Amino acid sequence: MAREFSAGGVVLRRMQGRWWVAVIEPQRKPTPGVAKRRPVLALPKGLVDQGEKPEDTALREVREETGVEAALVCKLHDIKYVYVRPWGDRQRVFKVVSFYLLLYRGGKLGEIRPDMRHEVRRAQWLPLEEAARQLSYGGERDMVKLAEEYVAAHPEL
Q1: Taking the CB of residue 69, how many other CB atoms lie within 10 A of it?
Q2: pTM
Q3: Most buried of 9, 39, 60, 115 (most Cβ within 10 A)?
Q4: Domain chopping of the chain, boundaries
């Protein structure tokens, strides 16, 4: 079985007296004959490049997929799962995605480079307390819940 390692970030920003999290809507090709699907909301993430540390991947992917710069706070957790590649060899893949808690440092959410537009349709801020209900993937909802717990335990953040 093939193995893949990815990393991503839960980027938090304090605005209007509460915490917000950066999420993306990945690009999805329409499927002929299938009605329009509900948009997917996800956390920014991507494959760890050879020689790259996972935390550096998380920061890079956040910058590429959302347009914002962030600073590392801590590692939240790993998500592990198996999927079948929908392209090429249709091989089963064991995947580990390491998620990090990050703090917004600058940039404008949604200012995504043109070469990244094939991956990301848009980026947006969601209130942290609502994000777990709105994200499309269970493991990512769990990461947001861990971020909420961290914020509650670290008011100095």
Answers
A1: 15
A2: 0.92
A3: 9
A4: 2-153
